[in-house]
Design a protein that fits this description.
alpha/beta, seven-stranded parallel beta sheet, 20 strands, globular, binds adenosine-5'-diphosphate, binds magnesium ion
Amino acid sequence: MTFGQLGINEAITQALLENKISQPSDIQRKAIPHILKNETDLVSVAQTGTGKTAAFCLPILQTINPGLAEIQALVLVPTRELGQQVAREFFLFSKHMPRIFTECVYGGVPIDEHIQRLKRSTHVVVATPGRLLDLLERKALNLQNLKFVVLDEADEMMNMGFKTEIDKILNLCKNDVRKLLFTATMPADVTAVIRDYIRHDAVTIRINAEEFINQNIEHSYIIYNQGEKLDYLKAFLSERKDQRGILFCRTKTAAKRLSKQLAGFEVTADALHGNLNQEMRDKVMRGLRKGRISLLIATDIAARGIDVKELDYIIHYHLPEKSDQYTHRSGRTARAGKSGLSVCLIRTEDLTEIKTIESNLKIKFTEISVKLPNDTKHTHPIGIQINLGLIQGFTKNYLVEFLVEEAGLSTGDVKNIRVNDNSAYFEVSARYENQIFLNLRSYKVAHRNIKMTVVELERD
Ligand code: ADP
Ligand code: MG
């Protein structure tokens, strides 16, 4: 089966080939002919990594009239990263067509810039729901000629609390606008949207679990000893220095902390979480794509839908809260027929949770082991003198808080603290020396660079 046989034209097929895409995936085989030919709506239930973007992007591109300089398709997405990815596919796959203009708009950046951009001729708008609504309220775009509205990752948009915005947007769309809804799961909010806005004769496509469960992912776990989780992580990463992956944490705080704990480590890591501004997020994502960063440390929300080619592994630093979250996380690897490893860092008592995921998703985990370096040589204590003291507001407690927050230490790591007016002294294990220096290197307190000196202590 080829894209041509599904009705996709020469210009698009050519662009696909240049991106090494020649065989349609299941969802594409089922969705493309309907979107091209049918007059009705589409509901598609399929897991991540099945090629949903192209499933709607290709037939939409082919239906757009490039000669009409009006918005003809609107794609709603949960996050800016996902929006940028979708916009990129519209751009890539229309390379050999008369110029199609796509704009991607999302919250967190000044709206004026988006208003200006939308004054130029635009055929496709990719948007997060909140920003789109803002733009509509300011009459920055006109949806009179809209043919398609796509709800991509509908379940995730609901998770993020966009139900009200989506209701408003769909109410503003004229009746003859065709709605294409893509979702991995069917929570009540998604069912409600289907009931309220999708035509009753809509086509439903399901790529069922058996078809989906990505056979190319190897599921595994590493059992770590209490207090040595970070060492096990580092050992795992060391064995895969030339590979790239994503590590999942449950919270932003954990993600931030872990990136500080990996400062100076042989595998370059950076964190992607909701507290970063847009510029920082873009920088992190570019770093991962270009290979400057090998490990992306992310929270579930931040990483949703992210598609980076050739990721070799996924690490569940914290187990996911639900089994379907496990699917979403692991779906970031083994994309498009490639193989990948998904590994959970667990304690023996977490094995029951592993069993639950196994039975829910009908998959099998295997235990893998890593060799911990026996580097006892770095565990002796060192003293560090630092140029922060009471005058700068650094009490004992505050100094510990500061080191925990900014250098990724744990409270218990910092010992024998003495604070003076303009300086302080504390002791930590020598293994944290680099970590502390790297994290505080360019840190300024009251316009002063932080200066530290290390004192070697007697081993006993
Ligand atoms: P989903 O939205 O279902 O999670 P994506 O649309 O992001 O999946 O696609 C996952 C990856 O697979 C992307 O890198 C995409 O370019 C690639 N891809 C999509 N369709 C095909 C195909 N038919 N053959 C090979 N790769 C594909
Ligand atoms: Mg997708």
